[in-house]
Amino acid sequence: MALLLEEIVKSVELWLKLIKKPDPFVDPNLDPVLLVPGVAGSILNAVNDDTGKEERVWVRIFGADSKLRTELWSFYDPTSGKSVCFDPKIKIRVPDERDGLYAIDTLDPDMIIGCDSIYYFHDMIVEMTKWGFQEGKTLFGFGYDFRQSNRLPETLDLLAAKLEAVYTASGGKKINVISHSMGGLLVKCFMGLRSKIFEKYVKNWIAIAAPFQGAPGYVTSTFVSGMSFVNGWRQNFFISKWSMHQLLIECPSLYELMGSPDFNWQHIPLLEVWREKHDKDGNSHNVLESYPLKESVEILTESLSTNKILHDGVDIPLPFNLDILKWANETREILKNAKLPPQVKFYNIYATGLETPHTVCYGDAENPVADLHKLRYTEPKYVYVDGDGTVPVESAMADGLDAVARVGVPGEHQRVLRDHRLFRSLKHWLKAGDPDPFYDPLNDYVILPTGFEIESHVEKGLEVAALKEEWEIISNDQNKPDELCNGKPMVSSITLSQIVGDCPSSRAEACATVVVHPQQDGKQHVELNALSVSVDA
C-alpha cells in the first residue's frame, strides 16, 4: 500500500510539473508604468478606529447597499475640502497590496463569475505582463479615495510618494503614467500644483477617456436621480440607485466632473424641463425651458432642496451643495492653467462611436413637470452626441495640452480598457516587445492634430458655416514610398444637399475638399476644408 501511495505521489508531482506555468517573460529594459483609475475605480476599505476591523465597502456585490449607507455615506467639510464619513469611527483606506495593483485590478476579488462592471485594469495588467512588464518592478497602480476632490492635498501627497517609490523601485527610470477617466483630472491637477515633482519623475502621460471638459449629460442626470453601475437583476445584489445618489451629492469629485461652463462647446449642453405656465387669464400652456450649464445650477438647487437621508435615526439634509460647487469651480481653474513640462510627452486616447448623453430633458409636451422637488423621480430623455456613452468626444479631446497624438478608439467608457486597438497603441508608445509589423496608425486611429478652425455667420437670411481641420498621420516605416499619393497631393471632394423642412425649394448644401499631401519624414499631412449653406431658421 505504501508503494502504491508513493507512486501516486510521484505521479501527482510529475503532473504538477507538466501543468506548471512557465515563468512570465520579463523585459528589464522597459520604463515603469503607473496606472491611475477614475471615479469608482479603486477598492475602498472601511477601518473602524475602535475595533481595528477592516472590510471592503467598495466594491462588494453582497451586502453592498447596507455597507455603503453605514460606512461610506459622508458629508462635505468646507474647511478641509474633504468628504468625511458620517460615522466618526470609520476611516477609508485604499489597499496597497501588489504595489497598488490589487486595488485597481478586479474591484470585487470575491466574485467567482466575472462581471464587466468590476473588471477595471485587469485585462490591461494581464496584457502588459505579456509584454514583459513586472509587478513591483515596472508595473504599479495608484488607487485613491475617489469621493474626494482631484486636488485634495492628501491625495496629491500620496501620489507624490507613489511616483517617488516607483522611480526608486525601477532603478531611477522615469515613469509612464496611464490614467483612465477622472484619473486624467487627478493627474492634470497634480501636474498643475506639483509641477516640479511631475517633471522630475514622469516621462510620458497617456490619458484614456478623460473628461477634460466634464461629462455634462451623465453628471447632470446623476445629480438629479443618481446612477447605477449594474443593470437588470444584478441591481438587487448591488447598490441601489438612490443610495448611490446620496453618496455622490456630497462628493467633490462629482462636482468637478460637471460640464465646463467656460468651454466653447460646439454643441452646448443643456438642462431642459417642460413646465406648465399660466397666462393672465388663467389659461395653461406647456413650455420647454432650457438652461445652459451655469443657469442649470438654479434647477439642481431647487430640485434637491428637500433631499434628505435617515442615518442612525437622524434626518440629515443633503441638498445640492453650493460650497462644493465653489470648490469645484476653483479646481476647474487649476485644470485650465496646468502646463505640460516641455520634456514630458502627452498622448490622448478618447473613445468614440456611442450615443453619449449631452442635453438632459425632463417631462414632455403632454406631461410637464409640476413640482421640481419631484424631478428626481422622473426619468429623463437625452439629446446625444458622439462619445463613449459617458464622456463626449468633444470633452475628451479638449485637453488644452500639446499632445503628441490624439487617438480615437471606438468603444465604451470602461470597456475601452480591454480594447485590442488601445493595447496596440500603448505597446507602440511604451516601446514594449518587438515592433509590430502589422501596426497601422491609420487603421488604429492614430492621428496628430495640427489645426482646427470653425466659424459661422448669417448673411441675407442664409447661415454660412466654414470648417478647416488638419491632421498628420504617422507611418511606422519612414522609408516606405508613398504609393497613395505617388509623390503628388491627392485631392478629393464631396457635395451634399438636403431639403430643409417641408418646402422643396428650401435646401441646405455642403461641400468638402480633402487634400492628402505626400509623405515626408514618416508623416503625411491631411487637410479638410468644408463649407455649408442653409436657410437661417
UniProtKB/TrEMBL annotation:
<keyword id="KW-0012">Acyltransferase</keyword>
<dbReference type="Pfam" id="PF02450">
    <property type="entry name" value="LCAT"/>
</dbReference>
<dbReference type="InterPro" id="IPR029058">
    <property type="entry name" value="AB_hydrolase_fold"/>
</dbReference>
<dbReference type="GO" id="GO:0006629">
    <property type="term" value="P:lipid metabolic process"/>
</dbReference>
<dbReference type="GO" id="GO:0008374">
    <property type="term" value="F:O-acyltransferase activity"/>
</dbReference>
<dbReference type="InterPro" id="IPR003386">
    <property type="entry name" value="LACT/PDAT_acylTrfase"/>
</dbReference>
<protein>
    <submittedName>
        <fullName>Lecithin-cholesterol acyltransferase-like 4</fullName>
    </submittedName>
</protein>
<keyword id="KW-0808">Transferase</keyword>
